[in-house]
Amino acid sequence: MKTFNAEEVAKHTSPDSCWVVLYGHVYDVTDFLSSHPGGSKVILQLAGRDATEEYDPIHPPGTLEDNLKPEAKLGKIDPQTLANPAKPAAKEEKKDEVDPPLESLLNLDEIEELATKKMSRRAWAYYYSSADDTWSKSNNNLVYRNIILRPRVFVDCTACDSSTALIGTKVGLPLFVAPAAMARLGHPDGEQGIARAASKFGALQIISNNASMTPEQIVSDAKPGQMFGWQLYVQNDRAKSEAMLVRINKMADKFKLICLTLDAPVPGKRELDEKSSFINAAPVAAATKTGDESSRPGGGGVGQQLFWGTAADLTWKATLPWLAKHTDLPIVLKGIQTHEDAYLAAQYAPQVKAIILSNHGGRALDTAPPAIHTLLEIRKYCPEVLNKIEVWVDGGIKRGTDIVKALCLGAKAVGIGRAALFGLGAGGQAGVERVFEILKAEMETCMKLLGAKDISALGPQHINARMVERDIYDGAAGLDKMGLWTKSKL
Amino acid sequence: MKTFNAEEVAKHTSPDSCWVVLYGHVYDVTDFLSSHPGGSKVILQLAGRDATEEYDPIHPPGTLEDNLKPEAKLGKIDPQTLANPAKPAAKEEKKDEVDPPLESLLNLDEIEELATKKMSRRAWAYYYSSADDTWSKSNNNLVYRNIILRPRVFVDCTACDSSTALIGTKVGLPLFVAPAAMARLGHPDGEQGIARAASKFGALQIISNNASMTPEQIVSDAKPGQMFGWQLYVQNDRAKSEAMLVRINKMADKFKLICLTLDAPVPGKRELDEKSSFINAAPVAAATKTGDESSRPGGGGVGQQLFWGTAADLTWKATLPWLAKHTDLPIVLKGIQTHEDAYLAAQYAPQVKAIILSNHGGRALDTAPPAIHTLLEIRKYCPEVLNKIEVWVDGGIKRGTDIVKALCLGAKAVGIGRAALFGLGAGGQAGVERVFEILKAEMETCMKLLGAKDISALGPQHINARMVERDIYDGAAGLDKMGLWTKSKL
Amino acid sequence: MKTFNAEEVAKHTSPDSCWVVLYGHVYDVTDFLSSHPGGSKVILQLAGRDATEEYDPIHPPGTLEDNLKPEAKLGKIDPQTLANPAKPAAKEEKKDEVDPPLESLLNLDEIEELATKKMSRRAWAYYYSSADDTWSKSNNNLVYRNIILRPRVFVDCTACDSSTALIGTKVGLPLFVAPAAMARLGHPDGEQGIARAASKFGALQIISNNASMTPEQIVSDAKPGQMFGWQLYVQNDRAKSEAMLVRINKMADKFKLICLTLDAPVPGKRELDEKSSFINAAPVAAATKTGDESSRPGGGGVGQQLFWGTAADLTWKATLPWLAKHTDLPIVLKGIQTHEDAYLAAQYAPQVKAIILSNHGGRALDTAPPAIHTLLEIRKYCPEVLNKIEVWVDGGIKRGTDIVKALCLGAKAVGIGRAALFGLGAGGQAGVERVFEILKAEMETCMKLLGAKDISALGPQHINARMVERDIYDGAAGLDKMGLWTKSKL
Amino acid sequence: MKTFNAEEVAKHTSPDSCWVVLYGHVYDVTDFLSSHPGGSKVILQLAGRDATEEYDPIHPPGTLEDNLKPEAKLGKIDPQTLANPAKPAAKEEKKDEVDPPLESLLNLDEIEELATKKMSRRAWAYYYSSADDTWSKSNNNLVYRNIILRPRVFVDCTACDSSTALIGTKVGLPLFVAPAAMARLGHPDGEQGIARAASKFGALQIISNNASMTPEQIVSDAKPGQMFGWQLYVQNDRAKSEAMLVRINKMADKFKLICLTLDAPVPGKRELDEKSSFINAAPVAAATKTGDESSRPGGGGVGQQLFWGTAADLTWKATLPWLAKHTDLPIVLKGIQTHEDAYLAAQYAPQVKAIILSNHGGRALDTAPPAIHTLLEIRKYCPEVLNKIEVWVDGGIKRGTDIVKALCLGAKAVGIGRAALFGLGAGGQAGVERVFEILKAEMETCMKLLGAKDISALGPQHINARMVERDIYDGAAGLDKMGLWTKSKL
């Protein structure tokens, strides 16, 4: 195999001839430019140099092999000829500050604070960002503050059991890790670190379609009975999705559900993420832009790149039958935001076993409702849904009391997304464990102070949600009365 | 033609003899002092020197010819005798800072921020200012934050069409440029720059009665099918208004409507604008004030100057018939703020084809209701209005989601005022294009995430406006029940 | 008359022998110590030195003569022996800053800001302070922000007349000066300066019982038809009050009403005022305190001193008949804060001609309701009151729109207290005129933009008070239903 | 008795041999490590040195004797060999600042501010801290701000009597000191200082189960008729609780009630307290941790230490009968937070004579309801409770108006916790007296301004609680209607 020096590689930086160095090898990616899910611009910014550091944390193993022809691998790079990157020095300097021990971090805000210090700006911006003016992200949490707890006294709560079962599988906690992409951006432990942490608490982990490790890697040392789910973003190229389902179906002892994400048929506008990419990006000649790319406002950002190729044409009638052909696993629909869609989902039981009320962590559409709104809508307009399928929620969880409040309203499980990633950023697997430890302790303290011995004892009598209830959708009493439109057909 | 030197001109600075230099010529404006719409004080502050820089951006071509007798033009100025103004140096210094590229500005706030840096203090104060304590201006935007979106899932929204038709004319967007005065204050491209930007998006532009360019100039290179409106402030001297209508009627291929502004029969109190004028103004001897002027609190400001001569005696019965005599163009009434007036306007269809719910960008009466309040009032008390005439809104638009929310409630079009001016200030025509680009992209992302393929698919089922609804006027249920007054007659 | 030197006077600083210098004379005030309305401590702090500067601005002429026996005046002070006070230097230094011209101050906040700079800390603290945590003071204004105006269009409002009549007397404005004590603390023009300013606008002035000038002085150059009222704090020593009524009755051509203040039977806790007195006070030996005084928490402050001697035992049955014996002037009851008391007051028509809804500018009881609440209560529970007597309001007025909103709800007049005093502090009589000028202009601009030609045209249809209405007392629907108490008897 | 030197003591710092110096003596506490209520870690941090300063303020006399065998007392310490602690110097330096006189502190916030300066960080953190995000603590106070007072006029309120009776015993004030632990942490006067201050105002004091002095000490110089209560946290080792009851029963002339605390069966998460302990703690080898301790998140804090040994298995059926066997004193149940439990408590009259609506000062469960919510719930759903037993409240009291508002809603007494402790911290017994003085003066001023002569005159007609009422639990109208759960059985 031929060996190149860096000088030679550095000449290939145009759409006509674009080389990059990855893991010590030189690749000619010219032909791949137009089909890169993140757009050609992202590659051209890295052209002619060693892109391993940027490439590695966001691509699972096998990506190069899946996407490039064998002849694209031109040879080796002579490592002596690569300039020493200046960054590591800065990083070492930062490491002089000793991190506080994880056990001294008392809540999720403190973990996020440490993660913010330790992670790269790019990773932080990708995890932290949300759509437009972050109204939905903020409100996801605020809505829990506005629900008042109602502690009962003279109840023996010496023992308190927070285990439960989700769509028939026993779990240690009603808390699950929601699918979130690119865990290795935050820490080398990546999705597998989350899996190992989850196993200690018996918690379900739903693995992102855009994970930075393969599903096989992530579940490789799972404990017996450990529960996983696989998130599916249906691709325009359905064959790709079908191939993934084949892989997941083979691990049906571990993967107990397919989570079909519906709340982001197109990417939201996450300005912090876009800004971060814009700032870092070396300017690329306008000539290299395709018409398609130039229409994207801003710099794209990690979030937008991940969406390329995702199908926006899913429908109740076409997508669920297609899915039934390719997997027997139970389906969980993620991103339900109205009682109308919850009602519809329940018609698809038993193929659909659960729905996740979610506004995508506020990352898709700003001013979309928090999950608690949708849950209250369901209670008000179609409570029977809660009997037909399981209703899970995510978004805005910061405290054990938040989890308990959702459970009191009928949710069977509550997901965390950023919290797990920030735990990872703060301390790898141990940081994720600290997140679980804090939430489990807070949740059980809350249950005891409410006078509830186990999950099944929790009910709406334990909360006062009146401040929230008066804000939920009131189609029947309000705008619907105007006679200008007919109620959307269920 | 005689040539004067600056020293001689500088002697004429009193109400008895007042000269100014404009575009290289010397004018005797003594006789015109008392009839200047902005009051004599404004001219006297500039007397005896070259006033071109101050005069130019707020007067369209032809103003001198229309208002001064030929003999008032005394001759040329010897440019050698004019002192070099000190300002340009400062300006160059400022230009050392390189502006960020427009494509790096991700939202309207960032565009406003750049415009604020680049524009003169006076222009900024005029655009930015609003009445009293800016409650209405702030609330115009805030009210949109309090409307929650209701995304539907499993809808194929691969394609999304945001074109529509306004009073029968097809437009590329439901977004129009509301009439706003003095665009050249912000950038030399002026109203024509806005027109060229609008043409790229097929958007309607309503040209201000106080534009700093003539309507003929503004539409001079319009594309075929490009839609314009002309804003009319009826003048006390009706003949002036009639003359303008004659000019507009001649361009009926481009001007598809006359927009009669009603929400500002007298100027609001825009303190920032007044303050800016007060600070810059050289002190003028009290003796030069007329009784009328001295009664104006504060320094007047650009806004107050523009209002001089505007009629405050318009009525349903007199004004609309007068207008019918002078134009066949459809009438759009701007500044409707109650359902009662919306109901009345609908009685004047088909002469009146649309109304614009507006509180003049919060610039007229502080604590006047946001357009969304009035729209909700209409839906509640007289929804039939929405069938008889088109209802448009303006004020407070910052995001594509804001536009979509107004459309969901029945608005046919949504106007932007300051956003276009700040776009102009940030980058001339290209800045305005960036504003359109951002809003169109945000609007279409929102529609897709709601599951709406086109404008007609949007309806009140897509929003939860309950937080706003409970604040709207409730005459019937509340104060009206007291029996102390009878309902205002519709 | 004997002449003393300062050294000798300085020896008399104890409760056994207490001398002070006032206006160049030496007084022995030992016997008066125990009967000083402000307590002996205040005098002892000034004992042995020239107290003129502290004494003068808070005592009207004649106070010495009324309270001291002739022999208490011991003789003259030798002015050479008095140390030059150090303060004037500091004052001059401050005067190097040129005050902005009054006409450049655009609103009441800017006037207050200037007054705050110019006035003594003690005067400012007395005017500015309010009870406890200032909730009522803040809310007095905030409640107006939460009322939305409803402008009507197509109304000819070229002319706009803001004159009106109050209990039968024509006034130029529905705006009156509420009784506020100690105007000379703020500016030497004092209450007479306010009177002269009011005369320019035809406005009613109600003179405080604790004015720093005599009523005769204040009205001495009133214009024909200028309307005054006299505020009465009934004294424990009724004879004192009766004597004052004799003096006022003699000036019945000017004084058109007696304003009986009811909302402060005991002084509120104005911490800023108390703090200011505490800080300035020289420490006084504990031995000099009487039991009574030592029970007063804090330092007392100007406000508490003024209250000494005020009767707390007024009743409907005893006080009004007593008043009828001593004056024929119409009675205005100030400080009504519930609809129940408004209802009761109306039973005492025609002796009682008006009530002023007031919480004493937030200075009496914190979290007392703003006048607008009480006005809405009256409209809801006993609207007939508005027909039987006039209802005036005060508290929190900052804008012309505030005035208009109160009028729309049925108030006949709106009072300002601090605003007049801060106007005085900012520029003496001219400052008060500027306050009137601003409010009148704002009020008329508001009326025109609402489409109201005169005061009588204003009604509740011009406002949306829903945000406030939902917070007003709802005895019948809420707590009253509990059956634990019977409705307070009207 | 043997004398040790410090060097020798310093060798015993492990779980195998742990010595400490207390009050000049050396103790071998190795055997006691595992049974220390605060966990072994706390002792190990102090091992091998003089721990008197840390030990003394949180342990009442007799603790050593009760818990250690006689042979654990090894001998005396040679004081010469103890290093001089460095801290005192820093303390003296601080004392250079002269404290403001207590009479210059005008309200509870100013007293807290001074106490915060004077107290140790650890004491402050223990007193100040509350659960999670301090929502409940903040809202405890805020809820009073949202209740509006309704002053009546023309009421003779010259005299005003604020005395009352609690469960049959006459007290000088409706204000009591709620049980709060560890008063000597804040000031050496400790709980006895509070008792002496309370006696001056005839106020009830409920002594904490975790007091830093013995009950005998605290009441040792009580005045005749002075009323005390004893707080009971039932211990897992019931014999300990029974022994305490024997002691209390003997002082039945002073102790008029047993206050059984129910709102904290397990400790809340007080992060400030935990953080403070974590920061101060010397690192302890992980090997010394027991499994039980290592599961506690964070450092524990004073609050968590105090809870060890407290029973979490109390029930209506078992606990009250057990209590009846061991005392004849009336029972007051503290920590009722729902109307359901208030209703249940009333069934246990006359053994139960009163309940205290409390969320433990926001220290147990964050987002638990303020007492005022529960009081309003009782008025709404089971007002008869107010006739059967007395209802007291605590939490959030900052002003005399707060007290009056609670009384107007039917509370018979109002407790302060932190306020008394901060008074103690600010000035020992005199500081607590200042707290009583301020609140009593504020309360009586409020009563007079409302027109209430005594406590019995206060009623719901004096307040407008509508802003709070709309937020209280509305089971019947809201979530309860959903049919998904049956109302919790009373």
Automatic annotation (TrEMBL), chains A, B, C, D:
Q: Which SUPFAM superfamilies match?
A: Cytochrome b5-like heme/steroid binding domain, FMN-linked oxidoreductases
Query: Lineage in the entry?
Result: Eukaryota, Fungi, Dikarya, Ascomycota, Pezizomycotina
Biased composition range(s): Basic and acidic residues = 89-98
Domain FMN hydroxy acid dehydrogenase: start-end pairs: 100-468
Write down the superkingdom of origin: Eukaryota
- Entry's family note: Belongs to the cytochrome b5 family.
Protein name (Swiss-Prot/TrEMBL): L-lactate dehydrogenase (cytochrome)
Top enzyme category: oxidoreductase
Q: What do we know about how this protein assembles, alone or with others?
A: Homotetramer.
Sorted alphabetically, the keyword list is: Flavoprotein, FMN, Heme, Iron, Metal-binding, Mitochondrion, Oxidoreductase
State the organism named in the record: Apiospora kogelbergensis
Give the EC number(s) under which this enzyme is classified: 1.1.2.3
Q: Which GO terms describe its cellular component?
A: mitochondrial intermembrane space
Under the GO molecular function aspect, what terms does this record hold?
heme binding; L-lactate dehydrogenase (cytochrome) activity; metal ion binding
The cofactors it requires, by name, are: FMN; heme b
Q: Which PANTHER family match?
A: CYTOCHROME B2, PUTATIVE (AFU_ORTHOLOGUE AFUA_1G07200)-RELATED (PTHR10578:SF82), S -2-HYDROXY-ACID OXIDASE-RELATED (PTHR10578)
Q: Where does the Cytochrome b5 heme-binding domain lie?
A: 1-78
Compartments reported by the entry? Mitochondrion intermembrane space
A Pfam family this chain is assigned to: Cyt-b5
